[in-house]
Specification:
18% strand; Rossmann fold; 8 helices; two-stranded antiparallel sheet; alpha/beta; binds adenosine-5'-diphosphate
Length: 279
């Protein structure tokens, strides 16, 4: 159109350059977040929170300022794995995230609830509203990479997160069994519909290394992550072993001390795919 002012909200023309209406919510004026990575899974218990926390901790170790927004409102496990039990504080203007031992900024419903063992029995729109407020009403101070621990599945809350937050890419977490089902294709399809690139797929519980002989056993069958990544054109993969040390350290709130070298290559690629602009 010759008289286009590039503001689709004030124009009714149905031209080829028309942009979809944006539902994105602004950060509060005191916050700054450069890149947002959403970590998704088809169902609970596959290690999504583990991968979210380990990637954030690794990025933080590399000198980036990182944050975790725990959007898994009904199954929040992020604070416990970082050994955080205190409450988030706030002012009239914003909520202040709790910082971990290495300075990662964390916001989770468990930091706000009176009693962290109380279940959250809320309807979908209320949960989605809480997640949106974690984006808009929290003081995210100079964050380079924010990792969002998404609720499992493709329901109301993941949809709200994709619409409300400027997600730069997603990481899909699965187990070997899930890789043969439709779970990955559903996650990929949702990302496509939301116009967000899938940056990688992580096969958790991929193998077990025998502590006595060092041999790798593929307990849940041969790895399929490479085939699945090729089939869906997903650029990066990672495989995480079943390791009782991980479980123990997560339970003890020491996730920042886990040796996560199995994620090194994936995090290298995230840095390359989502570079921070020079300021
Ligand atoms: P999700 O976020 O998908 O519900 P979590 O990350 O909370 O799953 O993981 C569920 C439990 O399984 C946690 O106690 C976690 O420490 C444990 N776990 C996940 N992956 C592994 C692994 N590869 N080795 C050992 N324990 C694991």
């Amino acid at each position: 159109m010759s008289d286009c002012n590039h503001d689709c909200s004030s124009c009714s023309a149905n031209c080829s350059e028309r942009k979809a209406e944006s539902f994105q919510k602004p950060l509060n004026p005191y916050s700054s977040v450069k890149k947002v990575i959403a970590v998704v899974s088809g169902k609970g218990g596959v290690g999504k929170s583990l991968v979210t926390s380990l990637m954030a901790a690794e990025m933080q170790r590399r000198g980036h300022r990182c944050a975790v927004l725990d959007a898994d409102i009904t199954g929040p496990s992020i604070p416990k794995s970082f050994g955080i039990h205190e409450h988030a504080t706030g002012t009239d203007a914003y909520l202040i995230p709790v910082s971990t031992y290495t300075g990662l900024q964390i916001m989770s419903i468990n930091l706000i609830l009176e009693n962290e063992t109380e279940p959250v029995v809320w309807r979908g729109p209320v949960i989605a509203g809480a997640v949106t407020q974690f984006w808009t009403d929290v003081l995210w101070k100079d964050v380079d990479y924010m990792f969002v621990d998404m609720p499992p599945g493709t329901g109301d809350v993941p949809l709200t997160v994709f619409q409300s937050l400027p997600v730069d890419g997603i990481i899909i977490v699965t187990t070997p069994q899930d890789l043969v089902s439709m779970i990955v294709s559903k996650a990929v399809r949702m990302a496509e519909m939301m116009n967000v690139p899938v940056l990688g797929v992580v096969e958790n519980m991929s193998y077990y290394t025998c502590p006595d002989c060092g041999k790798q056993h593929e307990i849940f069958g041969a790895s399929k992550v490479q085939d699945v990544a090729a089939a869906f054109d997903i650029p990066h993969t990672a495989r995480i072993p079943i390791d009782p040390v991980i479980t123990t350290m997560v339970d003890a709130g020491e996730i920042e001390h886990v040796n996560a070298e199995f994620l090194t290559e994936l995090v290298d690629n995230l840095e390359k795919d989502l570079p921070l602009e020079e300021t």
